[in-house]
Design goal:
This protein is mostly helical and about 140 residues long. The protein has one domain. The chain has four helices and no strands. The model has no long low-confidence stretch (mean pLDDT about 85).
């Protein structure tokens, strides 16, 4: 079977998620902001859209009872857990460290770069990305 049949749904879902990020952030800021394309986090999760687009595309092409679908589904859960769990926890730790550094600057004048705090997604951002990816993966494209 042609590999593009498997690659098109996740790539399309990822592209739509990235475009939605630009539209939502630009509307909120009332100016075009393409920088969001290079940042992590945001609504919707393009990671979730990508992996669920792949998973549901595989399910549509191979059957939802197939081994490739099961493997892709587990892969999707790992990616989405990481996006919402592990990376978000790292962001919270960065916030705590930034406050400690601010205290050190105030007390001793030590200068240090701020750590990036927004590293992951909220559960809602992951869910919306997953729904987007699933919907695109179920489309009869490719």
């Amino acid at each position: 079977m042609n590999a593009w049949k498997y690659m098109l749904p996740p790539l399309l879902a990822w592209g739509i998620a990235q475009a939605l990020k630009v539209i939502l952030v630009s509307a909120r800021q009332r100016r075009l902001n393409l920088r969001v394309l290079a940042e992590t986090g945001g609504m919707p999760s393009s990671h979730s859209a990508l992996v669920t687009g792949l998973t549901f595309g595989i399910g549509r092409l191979n059957g939802f009872n197939s081994a490739p679908f099961a493997i892709a589904l587990i892969f999707s859960f790992v990616v989405m857990y990481d996006a919402a769990g592990v990376r978000r926890a790292a962001g919270r730790q960065a916030a705590v460290l930034n406050r400690l550094v601010e205290d050190l600057v105030a007390m001793r004048g030590i200068r240090e770069d701020r750590l990036r705090e927004l590293l992951g997604h909220t559960p809602v951002e992951v869910l919306v990305g997953a729904v987007l990816g699933a919907a695109v993966g179920l489309l009869p494209i490719g």
